[in-house]
Specification:
Among the domains are: 144-197; 213-403, Rossmann fold. Helices cover 40% and strands 17% of the residues. It has helices spanning 11-22, 70-76, 111-134, 146-157, 162-175, 178-181, 184-197, 225-239, 256-267, 277-286, 305-318, 333-343, 366-371, 394-403, and strands at residues 3-8, 27-35, 47-54, 80-82, 88-90, 213-218, 244-248, 271-273, 292-296, 322-328, 350-354, 376-380, 389-391. Strand 4 and strand 5 (88-90) form a beta hairpin.
Amino acid sequence: MEVKTYRAASMYEALQMVRCDLGPEAVVMQTRNVRSRRLLGLFARPHQVEVTASAGVNVPSRLPSLRPTVAAAASAGPQGLATSEGLSVLDAHAPAQPIDRPAAGATAGSRPALEGQLRGQATRLQGMVQDLCRRPDVRLRHDLPDSLFRLFTDLIDVDIDETTAGALIERVRAEAPNVELTDPVLVKSRIARIIESEISVAGPIHVMPGQHRLVALVGPTGVGKTTTIAKLAANYRLKRRLNVGLITVDTYRIAAVEQLRTYADIIDLPMQVVSTPREMRQAVRRLSGLDLILMDTAGRSPRDEIKIQELKAFLTEAGADEVHLVLSSMAGARSLEQTVDRFAAVGTTSLILTKLDEAAGLGNLLPLLQSDALPLSYLTNGQNVPDDIETAEPTRLANLILSGESSGNDW
C-alpha cells in the first residue's frame, strides 16, 4: 500500500492534489494543520493543511447518494467519509461495531446454532445499515458540484466539524435553485443566512434610571469573568451615566478581589466583598439604591456539583435578575455544550462568549448556537477596558464564524 502526504494552503487545494494524483477513489487517512518552518530562521510561513492519502485502501464512502439502497449502504460501512467525486476520508471517530463470532468449538454437528448466529449477525448488520442511512452526514451526495465541494472544504477550514458542514451543504442543496448552486457568492450568502437564523440573542442588559437590577456573571475558571464585569461596569457608568455597584464572591482566586477593586477605584464605583450567603443579603441591601449591581463569582468546574450548588445558594440570596454564563470561545464544542448543561442548575439566562481574538477559528461555536440552549448577550475580543466588548448580533457572529477571524472579514 502506497501512502502519500500532500500539503497545501487550504483543505480544498490539498484534496484537489489528492484527486489529481491518486484519482477520485483515493482514501484520505489523516488531515491536520501544520506550521511551516521559518524562512531563513526569521520569518514564519503561514499554516498549511497536511493530508495523508492512499489509493490502495478500500474504504467505501460515508457520503453516498441521497437515496442509498440497503445493499449499497451495507457495502459502505460506517468508517469512511467522502468529500467529492468518491474521494473518501477515514473516520477515526466512528464507533467500532462488535460482530459475534462462532464459538471456537463449533462443528458441523452444531449447524443449527451456527445458522442462528449468522441470522442474528445479519439482523444486526441490517439494523446498523438502517441507522447509518438515517445519519445526517451520509445523506450528502458524493458527486458535489465544484462550488459546493469548495464550500464544504471552506467550512472545514474554519473549524466547523464535518457532520455540521455536511448538514449545511445538504440544506443548501435542498433549498437553493440549481442555478444558484453554481454561484459561490450566492451559495456562501445562503449559508450565512442559515447560520444567522440559528443564532438566538438576548440583547444587552436593559437598565432604566431609578430601577434596581442585579446581574451576575458565572462560569468556569479562566474565561474572563472579572475583566468582562469591568467592561460592563465602565460602559454603564461612563457612557450610560448610570449608578453602578460591584459585588464579588471570588475570594478563592489569589488577587481576584484586588483586581476588581482596582477597576472599581478607577471607575469610582462602590464595591462589596462577600464570603457567605448571609453576607450577600447585607451587601445587596447596602447597594439597593443603585441602578445596576454587577456580581462577579468565583470560577466553578462544571463537574463539581458541590461548588455549583454553593454558587446557586449565593445567587438565590442575591435575587439575581439575570445570570450570564461566560464561556471561552477557545473551548471545544463538546465542552461548551456540557458546561451550558451543568450551569443550567444555577438559573442561567443568557450567554457571553469571550476571547474571540485568541481563537484560531470559531466553527466550534456552531453546534452550541444551533442547540438554542441559551441566547447570546455579549461577545468580547480583547483585554482592553472598557473596549473590546459588543452586544451579540446574529449577522455579525455568523460573519465571524465563517471568516474564521475575530475581525469578521467578508467570507
